[in-house]
């Protein structure tokens, strides 16, 4: 279980997070929604210890990330897999080495086996084996995104963080990814946090949905609770209405 | 800002000098922290032999042509210049000596250090800077890989190893260039020229130059990787990091050269 307590983060004069509180229950999928620039990616980077808060803390199974030594932090981070918003593929290596990177680094597994795992994970995200030897620069945006997804799940992590995994994918591929997220959670009991702008996928994968607005969580609840929410901010956001008047763009 | 700036130009000048000094000092502080971390992680496994060889190729082998061209012309011009000077007091026979000593002690290491700062330093900063702004470095960290261990240490080791190698070639080619001009243009006696070249050249001269080169290589790789890691703000940021890496590495070569020389010459 991951607990975010009173998280504050400021970049220069830009107060991005202003006291975020969030519970991510074990074995369930929590979806974070919120406007562009509201700080969702920044929040996710705090959860995996890529960024550290100005105030507040992040607990992963009771361990405060700010209080850990570098080597303990590495141990905690290795329990996670993360899909980056911009894929963040290593552009100096072919697709299969990207997917198998952590295996190549942390285990003595022979290359043949690593390729086998890479092939399998790529298949899960709807890519066939002929992308294996290609370089990231030779892939389309949606393909890169899915290679990033395959890389995140290569080590069978306990916790997965997905930053907009379906943005830029066609509807069918989005559905492949949504089903994969669901099945990883159901089959392997993975704890997941997903950021998305896509309410269809949010309702499909989420056990809980939390909405971030102006640096705070304004509402959280089950998909049904969010759907039935009377909170004007949430209503306006989930229905995608730009004329509602309450939701202001920073 | 406008209200803060004072009308007294002397105070304004002093405060801007003060600001620059503070900036430089804080930069030196952060580079030193990375140096310490690189040293700590460099002596611990995993040792990335393959990465090191890759970087040795990038830093050393690929810089060879431009280093050699620089060296031969430097040796040639040294012979011409010292001949003109020494003729005034009839010491033309010392041209070979001057070329050999200048190349090995000073020009070989410093020019090679500057060239590699420009070539390899720029490419290290651009590559790591791009990795930074596209979150590849964040991705490494999430997978439990230390960017210092994976990216910085192999580059520093390659710099420390390859710069002296480049300088050996530079010394040899530079001395050869001096010989060609001395013998074929200035009509020196080949036997005398060669004898004069090696009579006064000591092993310590060459070794001192190579030691300096090793330091330059390490500094160049450290500073350029640091600039890459600090990159912020897209393509423009990568451009700035690259320029910054070249300027700072070149400065580091020239400044450390003075102190190293004064230490070695004791
Ligand atoms: N490293 C950083 N340095 C400075 N400012 C940053 C940094 N990272 C993010 N920000 C700022 O924090 C704010 C929130 O950014 P963030 O990427 O979290 O938005 P987001 O909610 O993920 O938006 P989107 O849905 O568009 O991805 C933005 O104003 C951004 O400019
Ligand atoms: Mg984002």
How would you sum up this structure, described in words?
- The complex is a heterodimer of chains A (about 250) and B (about 270).
- The mean pLDDT of chain A is about 95.
- In chain A, helix 5 crosses helix 6 (about 140-155).
- Chain A contains ten helices and ten strands.
- In chain A, the strands form two sheets. In chain A, strands 6-7-8-3-9-10 form a six-stranded mixed beta sheet, sandwiched between helices. In chain A, strands 2-1-4-5 form a four-stranded antiparallel beta sheet, covered by helices on one side.
- In chain A, a hairpin with a 2-residue loop joins strand 1 (about 1-10) and strand 2 (about 15-25).
- Chain A is of the alpha/beta class.
- The longest helix of chain A has 18 residues, at about 170-190.
- Chain B is mainly α.
- Chain B is about 85% helix and about 0% strand.
- In chain B, helix 3 packs antiparallel against helix 4 and helix 4 (about 95-135) packs parallel to helix 8 (about 205-230).
- Chain B is globular.
- The interface between A and B is medium-sized, with 22 and 14 residues.
- The complex binds adenosine-5'-triphosphate and magnesium ion.
Spell the H/E element sequence of chain A: EEEHEEHEHHHHEHEHEEHH
Share of helix among residues of chain B? over 70%
Q: Determine the mean pLDDT of chain B.
A: 93
Greatest interface (CB-CB under 8 A), with counts per chain: A-B, 22 and 14 residues
SS-based class of chain A: alpha/beta
Beta strand count of chain B: 0
Q: Looking at the chains present, what oligomeric state does this protein adopt?
A: heterodimer
How many structural domains of chain B? 1
Q: In what range is the share of β-strand residues of chain B?
A: under 5%
Give the CA-CA distance, first to last residue of chain A.
32 Å
Give Rg of chain A in angstroms.
18 Å
User: Helical stretch count of chain B?
Assistant: 9
Classify the helix fraction of chain A into a percent range.
Answer: 25-40%
**Ions and ligands:** adenosine-5'-triphosphate, magnesium ion
Apparent shape of chain A = globular
């Amino acid at each position: 279980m991951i607990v975010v307590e009173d998280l504050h983060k400021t970049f220069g004069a830009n107060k991005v997070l202003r006291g975020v509180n969030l519970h991510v229950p074990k074995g369930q999928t929590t979806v974070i929604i919120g406007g562009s620039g509201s700080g969702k990616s920044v929040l996710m980077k705090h959860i995996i210890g890529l960024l550290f808060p100005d105030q507040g803390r992040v607990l992963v199974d009771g361990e405060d990330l700010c209080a850990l030594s570098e080597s303990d932090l590495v141990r905690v981070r290795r329990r996670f897999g993360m899909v980056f918003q911009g894929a963040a593929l290593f552009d100096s290596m072919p697709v299969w080495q990207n997917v198998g990177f952590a295996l190549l680094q942390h285990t003595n597994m022979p290359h043949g086996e690593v390729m086998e795992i890479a092939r399998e994970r790529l298949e899960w995200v709807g890519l066939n084996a002929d992308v294996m030897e290609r370089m990231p620069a030779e892939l389309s945006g949606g393909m890169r995104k899915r290679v990033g997804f395959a890389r995140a799940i290569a080590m069978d992590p306990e916790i997965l963080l997905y930053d907009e995994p379906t943005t830029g994918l066609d509807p069918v591929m989005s559905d492949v990814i949504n089903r994969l997220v669901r099945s990883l959670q159901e089959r392997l009991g993975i704890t997941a946090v997903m950021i998305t702008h896509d309410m269809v996928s949010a309702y499909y994968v989420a056990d809980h949905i939390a909405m971030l607005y102006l640096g705070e969580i304004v509402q959280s609840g089950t998909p049904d609770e969010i759907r039935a929410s009377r909170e004007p901010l949430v209503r306006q956001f989930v229905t995608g209405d730009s004329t509602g008047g309450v939701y202001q763009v920073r | 800002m406008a209200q803060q700036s004072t009308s007294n130009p002397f105070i304004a000048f002093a405060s801007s000098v003060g600001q620059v000094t503070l900036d430089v000092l804080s930069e030196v502080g952060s580079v030193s922290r990375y140096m310490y971390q690189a040293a700590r992680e460099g002596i611990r496994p995993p040792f990335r032999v393959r990465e090191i060889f890759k970087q040795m190729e990038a830093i050393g082998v690929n810089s060879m042509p431009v280093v050699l061209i620089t060296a031969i012309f430097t040796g040639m011009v040294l012979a011409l210049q010292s001949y003109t000077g020494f003729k005034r007091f009839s010491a033309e026979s010392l041209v070979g000596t001057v070329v050999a000593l200048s190349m090995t002690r000073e020009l070989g290491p410093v020019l090679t250090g500057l060239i590699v700062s420009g070539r390899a330093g720029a490419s290290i900063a651009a590559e790591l800077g791009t990795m930074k702004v596209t979150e590849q470095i964040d991705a490494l960290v999430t997978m439990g890989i230390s960017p210092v261990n994976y990216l910085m240490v192999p580059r520093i080791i390659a710099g420390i190893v390859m710069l002296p190698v480049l300088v050996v070639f530079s010394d040899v080619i530079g001395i050869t260039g001096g010989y060609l001009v001395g013998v074929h243009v200035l009509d020196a006696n080949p036997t005398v020229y060669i004898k004069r070249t090696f009579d006064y050249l000591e092993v310590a001269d060459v070794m001192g130059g190579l030691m300096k080169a090793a330091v330059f290589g390490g500094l160049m790789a450290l500073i350029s990787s640091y600039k890459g890691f600090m990159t912020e703000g897209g393509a423009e940021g990568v451009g700035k990091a690259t320029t910054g890496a070249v300027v700072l590495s070149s400065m580091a070569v020239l400044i450390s050269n003075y102190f190293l020389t004064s230490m070695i010459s004791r």
